[in-house]
Design brief:
Blueprint: H1 2-18, E1 27-28, E2 33-35, E3 41-43, E4 51-57, H2 62-78, E5 83-89, H3 94-104, E6 111-113, H4 116-123, E7 135-139, E8 144-149, E9 159-163, E10 166-170, H5 172-188, H6 190-193
Parallel strand pairs: 4-5, 5-6
Antiparallel strand pairs: 1-8, 2-3, 4-7, 7-8, 9-10
Helix pairs in contact: 2-5
Length: 197
């Protein structure tokens, strides 16, 4: 029986490690360094005590550019509530294009670059596994990753919302904005701060 339990646990952990959209959550957020366009670095740990939404993006991806613009609205609305939005670009040449990316998206939050290796390690995605961008990660005030969404998931696409007996289809931008707000609202609820670690 003990062997069966150990084998089941190993199978679950192996599946989670090879299926990026099913990354283990919650999990402790490891340290992460963002290289800002001005040459300085930001450490993820410097935002401990705030809820953090991180978008991992490619500078050449139109969906990522839309996400970067939506995150301006999120930072404006949720910043005063204790949320920090961060952006990380990690495609080839991102360090050279980050200023153009930030200007084109009118970014109002810290947005810099990194290399693919540290990003994929942070996300728990093996380097040989395919993935889609943008990737959104939500971290609570204690530094625990509570949710992670890969670019091809419903979280970033259209959504159906039912309210007062009326069903509405939200298109990608509206759905993504609504979904991000819902994730942040969960992080800001007092019971999340005391959840199991």
């Amino acid at each position: 029986m003990r062997t069966l339990v150990l084998l089941a646990a190993l199978a679950v952990s192996t599946f989670a490690a090879t299926n990026p959209s099913k990354a283990v959550v919650p999990r402790k957020a490891p340290e992460f360094v963002i290289q800002l366009p001005d040459g300085t670095q930001k450490l993820l740990s410097s935002y401990r005590g705030k809820a953090v939404a991180i978008a991992f993006m490619f500078t050449t991806c139109p969906h990522c550019q839309n996400t970067a613009k939506l995150l301006n609205l999120i930072q404006s609305e949720y910043g005063p509530k204790g949320v920090q939005v961060l952006g990380v670009t990690f495609d080839a040449g991102a360090a050279q294009r980050i200023q153009q990316f930030n200007a084109g998206s009118a970014v109002t939050y810290p947005c810099g670059s990194s290399n693919p290796g540290p990003v994929l390690e942070f996300l728990g995605i093996p380097p040989t596994e395919p993935y889609f961008v943008p990737i959104l990660v939500f971290i609570d005030k204690q530094g625990m990753i509570r949710s992670q969404f890969i670019g091809d998931e419903k979280f970033l696409g259209e959504a159906t919302v039912k309210s007062g007996g009326i069903t509405k289809v939200l298109h990608a931008d509206a759905a993504q904005l609504t979904n991000i707000q819902a994730e942040l609202d969960k992080l800001l609820k007092p019971h999340v701060a005391t959840a199991a670690k």
